[in-house]
Design brief:
Structural class of chain A: alpha/beta
Strand order of the largest sheet of chain A: 3-2-4-1-5
Oligomer: homodimer
Order of helices and strands of chain A: EHEHEHEHEHEHEHEEE
Number of helices of chain A: 7
Radius of gyration of chain A: 20 Å
Helix content of chain A: 25-40%
Strand content of chain A: 15-25%
Largest interface: A-B, 55 and 55 residues
Shape of chain A: elongated
Chain lengths: 251, 251
């Protein structure tokens, strides 16, 4: 071991004389590659190893955003996440992914993990962070979140002055969803997707439908923007509802 | 007038034959210039005219973030905001600023407005947007908000899965502050500044001090991070408190 070299934790035995690599959890922003940060652009274009989550049946959204910047020589680690609401299979996938990443780190290579939007805003990066950050250096590079991207394309400020902004996952059960929205001046409902009809019923009951804007795939060429009352019955995974009761910008 | 040219609204008479310029409201991110987006970098480095808010007694924070990218040839429009809690002087400053911007637009020049963090996340850009967007084309370019930047440097996810995330301005009166924080699993308190001692008392009463992290000037060289219980008595304007009751990452 060289002076100044440190080995912590209980990971696989590092190669002697090689300082372990570092993890970069990099937010790639909401979809438009130009909304990557300068730092994300630099880290990705110089990466030796790149990891990203992939839902079983689809291509990786984070990888598609960064695709043009990834060097052809980079080794790629796709982390395949099974489509199930059970926790265990997904946990096993993150266990496996973090072992693959750790093997690269132990050989002295840095690993750039691509994250949709921002790594710590409802992102899956936290599952890798919790598995790796006690043993390796992890830098989180924040990105533009879908939250502010949706407000930008809607042309509607999220919140201002003394307003409280509440961010509610649309996956909550109806009663809880209503309780967490009711009485709040500015609300963003994320993870809309297949829950849209249910969410609309809740907002109808609260009298909020006409103060709500709907955005699909913000900042992508396929982006769609409309008042919630005109929204389609079926929403894609990347969709959001924004409500501000003190303004009616969508009317 | 040329075919295809449109003049709308009631602004100053445009120069004949000149298509009006466009406004870009550009988020410059939380402080580290590398956290500007690629698009922000490109728009600022190619700008003919740049506008930004300046608090009376300080330099412009947004300008300091973008400073190295601003071309020396760019014309600059500082919008001087008086330091007062009265609304009228600030309104007058935004009236004046938007008239200066409109004069450039009418001459056919685009104007890049620099915004701290993200333009529509509790930003002052909305005051220019409301004055200009009915008469001119305005594109809002989202940026990395201080919210996700603070979570990144704290090494602590803001929220995940079905958690509700509540963003509360620390400027609210004590009782209201307590009511909007109490019972919520994940809370970010923004606009802390001189309200820190008051906010700490409220969090003490709610038993939340030990679940709270404190960040000053996230992503700047002068950044400071600590558990809230160790925070100084006086906080700068750019400070934030993050609370997640389901995790205790700062202990």
């Amino acid at each position: 071991m060289e002076p100044g070299e440190t080995v912590t934790g209980t990971g696989p035995e590092p190669v002697l004389g090689v300082a372990p690599g570092q993890v970069y959890g990099v937010g790639v922003g909401p979809g438009d590659p130009d909304l990557m940060t300068v730092r994300a652009h630099r880290l990705i274009s110089g990466a030796e190893v790149i990891a990203y989550p992939v839902l079983e049946t689809a291509e990786s959204f984070a990888r598609s955003v960064a695709g043009a910047v990834i060097p052809p020589s980079a080794r790629e680690i796709p982390i395949r996440i099974p489509m199930t609401i059970e926790r265990e299979p997904a946990q096993a996938a993150y266990d496996h992914g973090s072992r693959c990443i750790a093997a690269e780190l132990d050989d002295g290579r840095d690993v750039v993990v691509l994250c949709e939007g921002d790594p710590f805003f409802f992102g899956s990066f936290m599952y890798l962070f919790s598995r790796l950050s006690s043993r390796y250096r992890v830098e989180v590079v924040p990105g533009v979140s879908s939250l502010t991207a949706c407000a930008a394309v809607l042309g509607s400020p999220l919140a201002a002055r003394d307003e409280v902004l509440t961010i509610v996952p649309g996956t909550l059960p109806d009663a809880e969803l209503g309780r967490r929205i009711d009485g709040n001046e500015a609300v963003a409902i994320i993870k809309v997707g297949r829950h849209l009809p249910r969410i609309r019923s809740v907002l109808d009951r609260l009298g909020l439908t006409d103060s709500a804007g709907y955005v699909e795939r913000a900042t992508l060429p396929s982006q769609r923007i409309m008042p919630l009352r005109d929204a389609p019955a079926a929403a894609p995974y990347f969709s959001m509802i924004l409500i501000n009761r003190t303004r009616d910008p969508w009317l």
